[in-house]
Amino acid sequence: MVRGYLPGRMARGSAEQQPIAERLGAADPEWLRQRLEELEKIERPSASEGERRAAEWLLERFAEVGAQARIEAEPAHGTYWWPLGIGAALGALGAVAALRGRRLLGAALGALGAAGVADDFPPGQRWLRRALPVRTTHNVVCELGDADAEHTVVLIAHHDSAHSGLVFHPKIPLIADRLGLIEKSDTSPPLMAPVIGGPILAALAALSGNRLLAKLGLLLGLGSAAAMTDIGLRKVVPGANDNGTSVVTLLALARRFASEPPRGLRLILLSTGSEESFSEGMKAFGERHFPDLSTDSSFFLCLESVGSPHLLVLRGEGFLKMREYPRRSLALMDGLAEELGIWLFPNLRLRNGTDGLESMAAGYETAVLAGCTDLKQPANYHWPNDLAANVDFDTAADAVRLSEAAIRRLGERWL
Q1: Model confidence, pTM
Q2: Which of 121, 93, 169, 123 is nearest to 363 (CA)?
């Protein structure tokens, strides 16, 4: 719990008396565009040489605006399709065993597959991928403000980009919308439900002897394994919206805070690697830095796909369990958006995960500033048309203003 930022409370003796909307200049969309067009040209899969080049590019851009940054290299596997594909395949084998009457073996394989998939979802410990090859991921860390301040704000983006896949085809949400499924839901589609559903059904089928469940588990297991294979074989997308827009937002904020440092706090601008392999870079940052960051005096703000048409503050997220973001974090961001005249898409939750899930699960006050389309998903999500030419830079500029407002308001109230 973060002390001292209850809504409406101003630090005694603060010189910042005028409304915050009058103190923050508008972000320059063209400045953001120019840098994003540079970044999208770097092919940057998780834990790859391209990701390293993107990290080095980011160091240079930080230096240009007068901010010093460093790269922290960390071990990472770099995929999610291998561990999830293995888990789905184990479930399919369990279903086959159940159909052949080997119920004990089928139950064991199904349970093992389900446990491996569930544990691989953030913020799990991911024991299955520990047996898989390890590469190196590259986090970029830039520190500004008062290094000796009691309170810390960590602002998060990620500079790797995602593989595409048929499951991300843009026509799928359109079909769901025509069926009325999107309008009725306040969460994004549970894309990973079939992946864990196959092994679970296989285990239940083996325990109960139900052949229909076994056949359904086999279908889901094979389909999920095929989907993961398809993702692994495809190239990465340009990643302009997801999550290049948040990277250039970090640069814009570094530019502002380098000339006018935040008062009353230490600010860490963090761009993680391997977010697209289930937040491996963020988990590594936590293992390195969480012991030195008190949960009583640290606040995390995660930026995700902020070049979509609509800006939003996530109400909750999680692959299996929906974790609600703290009410005080939501009140802070909602109140500042209202002060700034920024409309936020209401009441949306995510059935996947951002890097903010790691800090929230670790007990830190966390908020996620994200973007979506009318279909309640990031624009051009994991598809080859995720280009700077298709980014809404007015939304990205609003993300810069709202992020700066949150950081400066926290600093004022911690003085």
Answers
A1: 0.93
A2: 123
For 47, the domain range is 20-79+135-166+236-414
Spatial contact of 186 and 350, defined as CB atoms under 8 Å apart = no
Cβ partners under 8 Å of residue 63, min gap 6: 69
**Residues 203-244: tens digit of each pLDDT:** 999 999 999 999 999 999 999 999 999 999 999 999 999 999
CA 374 to mean position of chain CA atoms: 20
Query: Are the CB atoms for 158 and 272 separated by under 8 Å?
Result: yes
Q: Judge contact between 109 and 198, C-beta under 8 A.
A: no
Residue 5 lies in a domain: no
Compute CA distances 219 → 90, 134, 194, whole Å: 13, 31, 10
